């Protein structure tokens, strides 16, 4: 069995580790919040990646469109599959009435997002979403 000083040493070590985890997680959360607030107009996801590639590689518009098409054609099937899986997992948690409302909500939301992207031409995907 551990003697009293070894027990306190173990407790101190565990407490220090836990405090480090808490400070690290909290610090990262603050950093993410600060980084997002510092650049609210900065794109996310595919739009951000394309903006960075365009700037770093100095892509001309034709190259940007070609790269975007290649990336989107690779990612889109996976994205659609994950979205369908998510929808079915959510539906399993709902009553039949809630499922119908959820389907309506999702349809409206996705239509609205598609319309916003078509109107703004966001990310060069104008008219490419199906």
Structure description:
The chain starts with a helix and ends in a 10-residue tail after the last helix. The chain folds into two domains: 1-42; 44-130, no CATH class. The chain is built from four helices and no strands. 2% of the residues are buried. Helices cover 81% and strands 0% of the residues. The radius of gyration is 24 Å and the shape is flat.
Structural descriptors:
single chain; 130 residues; 2 domains; flat
Poorly predicted runs: 122-130
Biggest sheet descriptor: none
Distance between the termini: 66 Å
Oligomer status: single chain
Total count of domains: 2
| Strand portion | under 5%
Radius of gyration: 24 Å
Overall pLDDT: 84
Order of helices and strands: HHHH
Helix content: over 70%
The structure class reads mainly alpha
Query: What is the helix tally?
Result: 4
Number of strand elements:
0
Described by the principal axes of the CA atoms, the overall outline is flat
Secondary-structure blueprint:
Blueprint: H1 4-38, H2 45-57, H3 61-92, H4 96-120
Helix pairs in contact: 2-3, 3-4
Concise account of the structure shown:
This protein is mainly α. It folds into two domains: 42 residues; 87 residues, no CATH class. It is built from four helices and no strands.
């Amino acid at each position: 069995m551990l003697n009293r000083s070894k027990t306190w040493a173990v407790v101190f070590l565990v407490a220090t580790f836990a405090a480090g985890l808490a400070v690290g997680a909290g610090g990262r959360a603050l950093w993410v919040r600060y980084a997002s607030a510092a650049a609210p107009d900065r794109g996310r996801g595919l739009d951000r990646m394309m903006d960075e590639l365009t700037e770093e590689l100095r892509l001309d518009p034709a190259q940007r469109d070609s790269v975007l098409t290649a990336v989107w054609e690779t990612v889109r099937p996976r994205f659609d599959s994950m979205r369908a899986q998510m929808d079915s997992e959510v539906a399993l948690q709902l009553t039949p009435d809630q499922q119908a409302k959820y389907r309506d909500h999702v349809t409206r939301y996705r239509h609205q997002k598609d319309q916003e992207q078509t109107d703004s031409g966001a990310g060069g995907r104008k008219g490419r979403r199906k």
